[in-house]
Specification:
single chain; about 210 residues; mainly alpha
């Protein structure tokens, strides 16, 4: 059949061949996720879909296989990991446990992303990014809540039309604009404020909306 029928919602898969993954880029989290993305080059549509039947049965994760990534692709991968986490974290449904998972993962990525960018063969940094990639997209960081990947969906439109736009680079442009649009929502403002306090050492203030 046509794989696009799954991404476009015409059909739902009921089974799949068992999948194994050899990870070479810490980014999408495909090694532990149940999602897949395809681009239809005839219509310029880029769509993802979720199904447990394609979640990999195993993954081989050797940080040394990511040593040869360029600085640009390393940075794009860092953005994608953070976005998989942030789009679950910025939610109107409260989940304290999910929040703490997300903050811890983001701290790990911010710290080790800088190291890997400047020292591509740093095994420890690459290892931490590899683990963060996996756990950012396997369901851990949205436990207890629903979520919508709005920035991801918008970026897919951009890179569906312009295949020279790397996914992580597109997200780096979309997310700040999206954040400025939603951060004053009184439910979301404290979440953005906590990010500022926990990740970027912004001094705490009682006027969260002005941060």
């Amino acid at each position: 059949g046509d794989p696009w029928e799954y991404n476009s919602g015409v059909k739902k898969p009921s089974k799949a061949l068992p999948i194994g993954v050899i990870l070479t880029h810490s980014a999408a989290g495909s090694e532990m996720s149940a999602s897949t993305v395809l681009t239809n080059t005839e219509t310029n549509e880029k769509l993802g879909y979720l199904t447990e039947v394609v979640r990999p049965k195993f993954a081989i994760m050797n940080p040394e296989l990511t040593f040869s990534l360029s600085k640009f692709q390393t940075a794009c991968g860092v953005v994608d990991i953070m976005m998989h986490t942030l789009e679950r974290y910025i939610s109107s449904e409260a989940s304290m446990l999910a929040d703490e998972f997300a903050i811890g993962l983001l701290k790990t990525v911010v710290k080790n992303g800088k190291v890997a960018y400047n020292d591509p063969t740093n095994y420890e940094a690459r290892k931490q990014l590899m683990l963060a990639s996996s756990f950012s997209h396997n369901g851990l960081t949205h436990v207890g809540r629903n979520y919508k990947m709005r920035a991801h969906a918008f970026e897919h439109i951009i890179s569906g039309f312009y295949d020279n736009v790397t996914h992580g680079a597109g997200l780096a442009i979309v997310w700040p604009a999206y954040s400025k649009y939603v951060y004053k929502n009184p439910v979301l403002t404290p979440l953005f404020a906590k990010l500022a306090y926990e990740l970027f050492d912004v001094e705490k203030t009682s006027d969260l909306a002005s941060d």
